[in-house]
Amino acid sequence: MLIKFNVLLLFNTAFALQQNLRNQILISQKNKCGMCKKNFSKLIPHEIHHLNHNASDNNKNNLLALCCNCHAAHHRYNISVKPYFTDINNSHP
Ligand SMILES: [Zn+2]
Ligand SMILES: [Zn+2]
After folding, report:
1. What is the rounded distance in angstroms from the CA atom of residue 10 to the CA atom of residue 42?
2. Ligand 2 centroid to residue 15 C-alpha, Å
3. I want to staple 46 with a disulfide (CB 3.0 to 4.6 A). Which of 16, 34, 40, 60 is the partner?
4. Ligand showing the shortest atom-to-Cα distance for residue 55
5. Cα 20 to averaged position of ligand 2 atoms, centre (Å)
């Protein structure tokens, strides 16, 4: 029972950390998808992508918020994903 409780506690802590990280990432990306730059919304949910495909590497530099379409496109069709750059407003489409 004690082990079970500890696992649950560990899971909750990891989850809370992830929520916090998610928020930080969304703020730094101005709530936009790192690929198509669409604003996230209820209709365009965000997903956190691990740039090096290592799901246990939660370093901020390894995480990128993508919309579900871009995320799926990357994993299904190997469309390349680049890290989000903050000077995105200066780049032309
Ligand atoms: Zn997108
Ligand atoms: Zn991913």
Report:
1. 29
2. 17
3. 40
4. 2
5. 18
